[in-house]
Amino acid sequence: MNLETLVSTIHGTVTPVDQDLVERAYKVAEIAHRDHVRASGEPYIQHCLAVASILIELGLPAAAVAAGLLHDTVEDTDVTLEALERDFGEEVATLVAGVTKLTQLPRVSHYDGNHRGESSTKVELAKENLRKTFLAMGDDVRVVLIKLADRVHNMRTLAHLSPEKRTRIAKETLEIYAPLANRLGIWQVKWELEDLSFRYVYPDKYREIAEFVDERRVDREKTMRTIITKLSKALSEAGIEADIRGRSKHLYSIYKKMERKKVPFDMVHDVRGVRIIVETEQDCYVALGVIHNRWKPIPGAFDDYIAIPKDNLYQSLHTAVIYEDGRTLEAQFRTPEMHENAEYGIAAHWRYKEGSHRDDVYEQKILWLRKLMDWRQDVENASDFVDAMKSDVFDDRVYVFTPRGDIIDLPAGSTPIDFAYNIHTEIGHRCRGAKVDGKLISLDYKLQTGNSVEILTAKRGGPSRDWLNPSLEMVKSHRARSKIKQWFKRQDRAQNISQGRTLLDKEMRRLGIDSISYDHIASELEFAQVDDLLAAIGIGDLQITRIIKRVIGEEEKEFEIPEGLATSTSLEIVPTEEVTILGLKGLLTNLGRCCKPVPGDPIIGYITRGRGATIHRQDCPNVLRIKDTERLVQISWGQPVKTYPVSVQIRAYDRDGLMRDVSTLVSNEGINMSSINVSTKNSLAIFDLVMGVTDISHLSRVLTRLEALPNVLEARRLRPG
Ligand code: MN
User: Fold this and answer.
1) What is the pTM of this model?
2) Angle subtended by helix axes 696-707 and 658-668, to nearest 10
3) Dist. CA 198 → ligand 1 center (Å)
């Protein structure tokens, strides 16, 4: 690439001033980097040109393009910021300064490493740097975009670096830069960064998936052409003009889906996608109707991101139908404007100069970014910050309203407690109840987008330790969690120790464990003395679930079955094999009575009218006779889960519906109960259950949740003797 081709691609009208700016920037960069070569052997200026070219592709104006050309000069050459300001003005100089600041900071190869290891200071430093990086990004979004463009080109040329460097940079890209591009809505940059990193972070998986995809390319393209022909015919009959494109899945997204759903390649890859671009918003809905009429929609697969845009302001309609061959077809509907926004995200602002509502959208995005950076200043510790970035920033979010109508942006799964802490730390501490849309709800209620939330507070007092118990799922955001911990940290040590002891005693009794001493736990977890362990629990720095996983889970790998109970309830002594069905999202399933499939048989699902799906063997004569083939869906057996029967006793003050609440909770946890006995004496009810759990942390979680039910006094495991 050279300067002329670069200038010729600049978006929109290029004024002589713009052209002059870019040309001068090029000259300065070229001279400054004259003696530098890239690891590939190319002259360094090629990197500068490539970064500038990516910025042009994103639609950024001349000043940012010039800054892109100059982005490495201050860091790597004799050029000073003062010189840049003198020659190019304040705007360009500020952008280069911003990028330089970022370049000097992030080195985050293994921040999820062991906190107590010898490299812990290093890890902490890396996290601290990363934190500063994100804070610095709040200054000007264009700085972030230049940094992203820089990263894209570095990733494209990563092959020339040493293997260690490749892995480190690719990992950092996957964990930080790709999600950041996603949050800014720049889809193009996001998937390119992901696929480029994927190749180096998981080389074996990458090769495997790339080969699979390649093998099936011809077939897939043929089917896709047929689908597109049918779709455009159906749409034009409805009077809609549409631009229909097959949507290929990116390698990393295939991999992630395989991992997430624990399914083989075939099941992910068989999902075909089309993108339908129509003139107006109205047409999106009409086109959706046309497709839902023609093929059977899959329940639960429809999402309206036009009415409720995603937090990065992405808009489209999503649906999935069962296509004629019995396999899934995903479809997205959007207008050209929504498409532009989806591909370029926050950068789309510069691509459209005219039209004022674009600026509103842009302002909203900037506002969001500023808010994000703002509260991050008071996260006190760098590890928490990185975890927060990973879960709060990159996951999906919900939007709820305050009584005054202000919108609060929270991570999905947030509760009224998260909301309260988001409003004000004091409101969080004193939160005792909440109303959602005018109704009283419990504090573990999961807020939904659109809810209007009102917090009921006490005059004084502090948070409850239960809020930090992950099994109860009462707090989702790291902000709330860190505020709650801070509160307990300020209490005196003796009080924290005694609270910690109460909590640990209770859990040990509940799990029926008496063979493990606290000294042993403390030394396993590298606490100098038991009091330190207990204080950490009291403060909320150490979760009991972690003790169970790390210490108790290790020693109690297998459950013993209480002898008396085993015979009296005719329990099977062998662990049971629970089987799940994959491929039917949220559908009720039952096994065909005709062919009685067992795990391992090749199976297929049949969508019934109103009774969910029936699972048949693929060679079942009834299936072979089915004419309505569009109601057949591809499914497979999931991983068998090994469970152990364990006896549990619940003591409670009896009330209406208690029995139902217990069994609903147990079944929501995916647990089979093999026996249940209830006796009542005066107003005290005693439930004796035998349930199948996967391990001791699973048991601890269920017991904690059972005990949180209204009127339940105690839920604990019964041990023999
Ligand atoms: Mn660079």
Assistant:
1) 0.51
2) 150
3) 21
The CATH number of domain 3-100+140-201 is 2.40.160.40: no
Q: Quick one: average pLDDT of 444-471?
A: 87
Domain map (residue ranges) of the chain: 3-100+140-201, 209-347, 395-488, 491-555, 576-638, 642-717
pLDDT at 355 over 50: no
Fold for 395-488, please state it.
Answer: Ubiquitin-like (UB roll) (3.10.20)
Strands 613-617 and 589-591: parallel
Backbone torsions φ then ψ of 329, nearest 5 degrees: -125, 120
Q: Mind listing the pLDDT tens digit for each residue in 106-154? A: 443 333 333 334 345 554 555 455 555 555 554 567 888 898 999 999 9
pLDDT tens column, 328-347:
888 999 999 888 878 877 66
90-104 helix and 141-156 helix, angle to the nearest 10 degrees: 60
Domain range 642-717, CATH architecture: 2-Layer Sandwich (3.30)
Predicted confidence at residue 633, as pLDDT, reads 73
How far apart (Å, rounded) are the C-alpha atoms in residues 699 and 643?
11
Task: For 544-559, write each residue's pLDDT tens digit.
Answer: 888 887 777 666 554 4
Q: Amino acid letter at 139?
A: D
Residue 243 pairs in a beta bridge with: 277
Catalytically active residues, by annotation: 75-76
Is residue 70 packed enough to be buried (19+ CB in 10 Å), middle (13-18) or exposed (0-12)?
A: buried
- Residue 571 Cα to ligand 1 middle (Å): 66
Closest to 675 in 3D by CA, of 646, 697, 698: 646
Give the distance (Å) from ligand 1 centre to CA of residue 144.
Answer: 13
Listing DSSP states for 218-262 in one string gives: HHHHHHHHHHHHHHHHHHHHTT--EEEEEEPPPHHHHHHHHHHHT
pLDDT tens column, 411-449: 888 999 999 999 999 999 999 999 998 889 989 999 986
Domain 209-347 has CATH 1.10.10.10: no
Q: How many whole angstroms from 40 Cα to the centroid of ligand 1?
A: 14
Burial state string for 564-592 with b = 16 or more CB within 10 A and e = fewer than 16: ebbeebebeeebbebeebbbbeebeeebb
pLDDT at 598 over 80: no
Over residues 657-664, the mean pLDDT reads 84
Q: How far is CA 511 from CA 520, 526, 537, in A?
A: 17, 23, 17
Checking if the pLDDT of 353 tops 90, the result is no
